[in-house]
Design a protein that fits this description.
single chain; 305 residues; alpha+beta; 8 helices
């Protein structure tokens, strides 16, 4: 099946272009058009094959969540004229990603498993198991890398290095906690647990805006609420909807994005299984199946929108 690997448009009035890990971004003075491609990344590496419908899933879930959180924090989004396109305001970005975790999973669990009891300057108690709920949500920021790996960083280092002014950072932390609370409420209504997620922020004339996507399977991890406690007590793996299954598949094939490691072959079956998981999350999150867009004239459709 076809998928959107990349776009290469040239628009009248276009001032710049940037290709991120999964998005192609077209700039127009004070606005930007963000195309959600079907590229997929893991361990900060873009994988060789694109995943059908992934971009549409991310863009539409992000749009729903941006609209559902505007009362907490203004955001960059102005319009979504196409299932794969979002148009919004160009913001001056803060060079950190605000990661917040309600449960010990993913990267934080791997650090804990390997003996660390502090992540990004935040102390963790002894005796936790993988996927245990934390006493309270913790914020574990990372730097924003244009290339290579994002790096864990503490609140103290962010302020010390002047990456974000202390007064602004306090606002980012406060907004992060409010947004996570709202995301947790939205997920619970659909029988899901929002395990962890990340938010990115920018500013225009001193006002803070929420930017990029939020609460998508690329930026967040979800567990199924039903059966969570029994699985945890039995020491079983949690049933989850997130990109973590892609990371686990890569790890099982000997790849974690480190130098010298080779990306495993992405067969048609692997690509379809990943696509199916994204469609499953959309249906579970939204409550209805994705209206899958036709790929036959996808570039023309996106360009016209």
């Amino acid at each position: 099946m076809d998928a959107i690997k990349e776009t290469n448009f040239s628009f009248q009035g276009q001032s710049d272009f940037y290709r991120g890990k999964v998005r192609d971004i077209y700039f127009f003075d004070d606005k930007m058009a963000m195309v959600a491609s079907d590229r997929i990344s893991a361990f900060d590496v873009i994988l060789p094959r694109a995943i059908p419908f992934k971009g549409q899933v991310l863009n539409q879930i992000a749009t729903k969540n941006l609209l559902a959180t505007k009362d907490i924090c203004p955001n960059w989004l102005l319009d979504t004229p196409d299932p794969n396109v979002a148009i919004g305001m160009k913001c001056e970005t803060y060079p950190v990603e605000m990661v917040i975790r309600g449960y010990l999973a993913g990267h934080a669990w791997r650090e804990y498993r390997d003996g660390k009891r502090e992540v990004c300057g935040v102390a963790l108690p002894e005796g936790l198991k993988e996927n245990d709920k934390l006493p309270k949500p913790i914020i574990t920021p990372t730097t924003k890398a244009h290339e290579g790996h994002d790096e864990d960083i503490s609140r103290e280092e962010i302020i010390k290095q002047g990456l974000v002014a202390e007064s602004d950072y306090e606002q980012l932390e406060n907004l992060t906690r409010q947004l996570f609370d709202r995301g947790t409420e939205i997920a619970a209504k659909q029988g899901l647990i929002l395990v962890d997620t990340k938010y990115e922020f920018g500013h225009i004339n001193g006002e803070i805006y929420l930017i990029d996507e939020i609460h998508t399977p690329d930026s967040s991890r979800y567990f199924y609420k039903d059966g969570f406690v029994s699985r945890q007590l039995a020491g079983e793996q949690q049933k989850q909807l997130s990109k973590e299954f892609v990371r686990q598949w890569l790890i099982s094939e000997g790849f974690q994005g480190k130098d010298g490691q080779k990306i495993p072959e992405m067969t048609d079956d692997v690509v379809k299984s990943i696509s199916d998981r994204y469609l499953e999350l959309y249906e579970k999150f939204v409550g209805e199946p994705l209206q899958q867009q036709d790929y036959s004239n996808v570039n023309e459709r996106i360009e016209n929108s």
